[in-house]
Amino acid sequence: MKQLQAVVENRTGFCLDPRTKLLLMAVVATAEFLYSHTAFMIAVAMIPFVLLLTNRQYKTATVFFCLFVAGLFVQAIQNSVQFPMIVNMLVVLLVGLVLRLFPAFVMGAYIIKSTTASECITALGRMHIGRQITIPLSVLFRFIPTMQEESAAIKDAMRMREIQFGTKKFWQNPAALIEYRFIPLMISVVKIGDDLSAAALIRGLDNPVRRTNITKVGFTGWDLLAVLIAGTALLSTYFFSPW
Questions:
Q1: In whole angstroms, how far apart are CA 114 and each of 15, 107, 111, 210?
Q2: Is residue 174 part of a domain?
Q3: InterPro entries under this entry (predicted)?
Q4: High-pLDDT (> 70) share of the chain, %
Q5: Does residue 198 form part of some domain?
Q6: Which range marks the domain in which residue 81 is found?
């Protein structure tokens, strides 16, 4: 009779503990509204940017880099160029959105992409966080990738039927693009949420007994290095930067 043995996935290379990621997320989200100097904002934005590169999310990192540089450029010329009032309001809103909020959004994208649901549950359990938070988070970590796959499948189906921007069917009925894209997506989202919630309950996440987990989660030298580099960059630009 063969003996069943659990297979534990050991990650190699640069890998941060989920608790370190949450700490950096809190630091980035707080620091965005703490100081307005350019050097400090760049230091804050470099944290998620470098983490994206280490996780090989090159496309997201490139888009974030281009938007952030464009936001800095517009902010630099904003006082020297006279925009109409409405345009100026939109420019201020968009620049503030990119410089203040995008780093936190990008940091969240990195955390979701680089952290599995098991790692998240294990880390939160070691932080003694209640199941009222761990269960929704476990569903969230599985929900977003599944929703992205469903959206890509709907997009492929629309492309096969030539229902996309610029085609003949689009110009005949532009509203069909929204109808055929969002209605199936909303139905799928509801179904996916119900399925993942049921799966979480079947796995015993609501069981009051302390759960065991084969996922290895722990602090390493990479966590200390990441915190030290991020802290040094933020403190140096906060106290000593002239611009």
A1: 9, 11, 5, 25
A2: yes
A3: ABC/ECF_trnsptr_transmembrane, ECF_transporter_component
A4: 86
A5: yes
A6: 14-115+219-240
Residues 174 and 81 occupy one common structural domain: no
Together in a domain, 56 and 142? no
> How many residues are recorded in the chain?
243
pTM of the predicted model over 0.90: no
Judgement on whether residues 32 and 101 belong to the same structural domain of the protein: yes
Q: At CA 198, angle to CA 196 and CA 203, rounded to 5?
A: 95
DSSP state of 99: I
* Number of independent structural domains in the chain: 2
> What is d(CA 11, CA 38) in angstroms, rounded to the nearest whole number?
36
For 18, counting Cβ atoms within 10 Å of its Cβ (0-12 exposed, 13-18 middle, 19+ buried), the class is buried
103-116 exposure pattern, b = at least 16 Cβ within 10 A, e = fewer? bbebbbbbbeebbe
Q: How far apart are CA 61 and CA 48, in angstroms?
A: 8
Q: Which of 119, 104, 185 lies closest to 151, judged by CA?
A: 185
Structure tokens at 114: 């680089």
Assess whether 191 and 232 both reside in one domain.
no
**Do the Cβ atoms of 128 and 111 come closer than 8 Å?**
no
Cβ–Cβ < 8 Å for 125, 35: no
The pLDDT tens digits of the residues spanning 106-120 come to 999 899 888 887 888
